[in-house]
Amino acid sequence: MSPPPFFTIGYEQVSSAAVLDTLSGAGVDLLVDVRAVAASRRAGFSKSHLAAGVSARGIGYLHLRGLGTPAEGRQAARSGHYDELRRIYDAHLATPTAQEQLDELTALVKAGRRVCVLCFERHPEHCHRQMVADLICERVGLNVEHLMAPPV
């Protein structure tokens, strides 16, 4: 039996119901929020609302703030400067907090959890979650599956 894939999802241009349906459909059992700031103007995506929404579907929630993008990295992403985002986030990943939280995430995946990391950007190639996924998959020997909820 092969291990489950490691999932990612972004909530840009989608409803919270669509994200919850997509997570449930993939059999995710733990949603890991990798936003530095787990607040959103989009309905259903602030930390407490998101945690309640996934809990109602039998999915756990964990916020690993230390894996979020620093403010200057978020600005680079909003400006379309993805190489700059990668440079900033690479430096951030070298911090002790980020390393501890990468280790925590790795342990959860190694334990067989069906984990999905969540951030805002719809397309993973424009988001730091792709970098997190690459590191986790390399550490654990899994493939990544980028979930895409239908847009609104």
Low-confidence sequence ranges: none
Overall radius of gyration: 14 Å
What is the N-to-C order of secondary-structure elements (H for helix, E for strand)?
EHEHEHHHEHE
CATH architecture verdict: Alpha-Beta Complex
Give the overall shape, derived from the CA principal axes. Answer: globular
Biggest β-sheet strands, sense, barrel:
5 strands, parallel
CATH topology: Protein-Tyrosine Phosphatase, Chain A
Which strand order do you get reading across the main beta sheet? 3-2-4-1-5
The average pLDDT score comes to: 95
Q: How many distinct beta strands?
A: 5
Q: State the name of the first-level CATH class.
A: Alpha Beta
Number of helices: 6
Percent of sequence in beta strands = 5-15%
Structural class of the secondary structure composition?
Answer: alpha/beta
What assembly state would you assign to the polypeptide chains in this entry?
Answer: single chain
- Give the termini separation: 36 Å
- Total number of domains: 1
Please estimate the helix content. 40-55%
Fourth-level CATH superfamily = Protein tyrosine phosphatase superfamily
